[in-house]
Design brief:
The protein is an alpha+beta fold and 168 residues long. It has 6 helices and 6 strands. The strands form 3 sheets. A two-stranded antiparallel sheet has the order 1-2.
């Protein structure tokens, strides 16, 4: 739903995973072979991907100051299962974290979160506050107080609801 620009670096993977479920319509694109292939998962690992997706969504809601959408496995517990190693670039000496194994989605997400934490971008990845949306978006607003994935859709709906509630 979001018309916002893509998040920086590997946060695109996290955003794309969270946005595999359209909460409003109930369509879960993890059910499609194309999306599973793009994320590098199989039909057998789709259940773990869904668990990871919903834990990420709860965390992104917390980034926006909202309670979890439902009871989920804490993200820290899931990411603890994905071992990372410190890498050092031989040319410029920059250090980073990388998954021990690039294959599993959990390992790639853990590395993306680690990269975002060290670059200071993790807290700007949020979930839309609209209960019928919950889409992940990257908040580029100067104050970091974005509330909706789309001001034209979710923001406008919320403002109209508030206006109608005042009129009633």
């Amino acid at each position: 739903m979001s018309e916002r620009a893509a998040p920086p670096g590997t946060l695109v993977l996290v955003r794309d995973l969270v946005n595999t479920l359209d909460v409003e319509s109930g369509v879960d694109t993890l059910d499609t072979a194309d999306v599973r292939a793009r994320l590098g998962i199989t039909g057998e690992s789709a259940a773990q991907a869904r668990e990871l997706r919903e834990s990420l969504r709860a965390t992104l809601l917390a980034h926006a100051g909202h309670p979890p959408h439902r009871e989920v496995t804490p993200l820290g517990e899931l990411l603890a299962r994905a071992p990372l190693v410190v890498t050092v670039d031989p040319v410029d000496g920059t250090a980073g974290l990388a998954p021990v194994d690039d294959g599993p989605l959990l390992s790639r997400v853990a590395a993306a979160v680690a990269e975002a934490v060290t670059s200071g971008t993790w807290d700007r990845l949020k979930a839309c506050e609209a209960a019928d949306c919950l889409w992940a978006y990257y908040d580029r607003s100067p104050a970091g107080r974005g509330r909706w994935c789309s001001m034209q859709v979710c923001g406008a709906r919320a403002k109209m609801r508030r206006y109608r509630a005042k009129e009633a």
